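Entry 14. Structure prediction run on the chain below.
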Amino acid sequence: MGFLRTLKSLVDSEVLGEEIIFANQRVYEQQKVLSPACSAHELLALTYISRKRALRQEVAVETAFARTIIFSNLPNGQGIRACALYLLYEEKPDIIAKHDKFEQEYYKIMGQSLYTL
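Output returned:
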């Protein structure tokens, strides 16, 4: 995150939400490089675990896999975007409530899925 965006994220919750999403996407891409043999689902679970640990929250591996399985079969890299939006919802539901663009994007990616936030 650039210095100006860092400052802006302190006062603008929409920017903070975008930065949380981008951070999770970056972790996913790093995991792909570090673990090229992993499946998309494994990479998503590793990203989920990484975010929870960064927030000093305990999470079981089984929970990470259960929470990310729905995102693992989405096409064209949409799985990590949907997962990152879901992580934003878990971490900062106030941002989701204030800026409906995040929820709208999630539902657009998920399509007709029965899964909801």
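The helical segments are 3-11, 13-34, 40-54, 61-68, 78-91, 93-98, 100-110.
Filed with the rest of this week's runs.
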